[in-house]
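User: Can you predict the 3D structure of asparagine--tRNA ligase? Sequence below.
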Amino acid sequence: MESQQEPKVTIPPLIPLEYSNRVMLKTILECGDDQIGLFGKTVVVGGWVKSSKEVKREPVAAALKPPTAAEAFPPSPGRKELSCVEVVQSRIPFFKKIIRVFGVSSDSYPGVREKFEPVPKPPPPPPSKFFLQISDGSSISSLMVVIDSAVVPVSAGHVLPTGTCILAQGVLEKSSSHGKQTIELKVEKILHIGTVEPDTYPLSRKRLPLDSLRDYPHIRPRTTMVASITRICDTLDFAAHTFFHNHGFLHVQVPIITTIDSEGFSEKFQVTTSKKWGLGSGSDADVRHETVKAEQHIEARDKSKLGTGVKPEVKEDFFGRQSYLSVSGRLHLESYACALGNVYSFGPRFRAEKTGSIKQVAEMWVVEVEIAFSQLEDSMKCAEDCFKFLCKWILDHCPHDMKFVTKRIDKTIVHRLEYMMSISYERISYREAVDILRKVTDKTFETKLRWGVPLTAEHLSYLADDHYKRPVIIYDYPKAVKPFYVRLNDDGKTVAAFDMVVPKMGTVITGSQSEERLDMLSARMKEFDLSRDQYEWYQDLRKHGTVKHSGFRLGFDLMVLLMTGLTDVRDVVPFPRTHGKANN
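Assistant: Sure. Here are the predicted structure tokens for asparagine--tRNA ligase:
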């Protein structure tokens, strides 16, 4: 018979972080059955206390109880007999306590004083054990950290409440508790303690609702929920770059400050250093450093005066002309697409809208794509492939976080993502969408529908959630509802633009084929009353080697919202800026 071999124990690598010399808790907590191979390893970990408990091992009163003869001298084989003197000497501490209890002064009995000096100090407080659940943000789970004050001195009265930062060295052991955790750290040395003020620490209370956490954007990343959202966001960020790099796209940074209006439908933030725009008074007005002030600006074609009715002296301003925070970078991206082929950009875009929508804040991150030698159909296919790739990547690379958001937020989120990965998306024209919505009899829409007006969120939701029950791509919109640079179709009424609408979310991707014909572009600019001088550089792309090209814009923050099952974008944007609120 062949001898049975014991299964080999795999020991996961515990490599300290290169720049902080500590081990990420993720490498300890998420190694599955291989945790047994970590027992006995000495590591340095750091994190913030999620919960704490102190257990005192012996009551103070127990120290006054004298030991019994059996406790003091337990029988033992080969142990020699003690003399009477040795017995009396062993009881000296007990006799001292009796003398102090009866208030006998040692001055009255010099011999006693001499015999019992020096008088011992009061006994130290009994040792305690601190059981801390700490997290460093790398994992859903927390690590149990056990501190024995008999081994690691802890200052008297020193507590380690929720929010305390701790860096400690210790040995990984099998958990002594009967909970879900199988491993814990027995501390041998405390390297750092960052104290906390429990009375003012916002997370002292357990599980604050998300709307309350919005008041503490600088503290809320320490919650399990926001930490999980952030890890999903990070993974999605990497996935987006991976998709485009895999398909030969180059990453290009486009400007945040611009002098053009790339859409013509959004309210913008004006950028100025002019003190006439209320940069302060008194001592503040004498500040010489340049300050960027965002002032709401209505559509570029609106010739009415701004703000208080006083137009700034733009010639004296920093840029010498009116400048704004960018609403879209696709126009700038076109110039690189017309030289390098396929390009994309990833960054913040700004809209000064006061809608109060839960899916819109003033600053949102987007992925923008431009593809040379392509038409509308090519962009729609690229957008659909990108969307499916992101869904699959999140499911493959965030299993622990997706399991958490499924349990805490939306039990159907994983199923929905899997479904959207495996099906084909419905494609309908704007006209077809209007025809479908007009035939609806079991629902009344708030906005009256007619051809030529934008489809509202209510209309789009019905198409994706109720009618098709899958993502829908709507294309060929009326030219009046899309930007000036979108290519005009042969019917002269519609343009080559599309929106991708996703169930339970709405529009996540918008795209179009750009107008490559100079005469058509000039005519559209005239319709929008745009300055030829301001867009001269953009027209140059049509004069010098024009090419058909198309692209799209993916709302990155909306994708995070979709992946997590949340409904309010303020819960996924790290520091949301909304009308009347930008505290951090």
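Residues 278-310 have pLDDT under 50 and may be disordered. The two ends are 72 Å apart (CA to CA).
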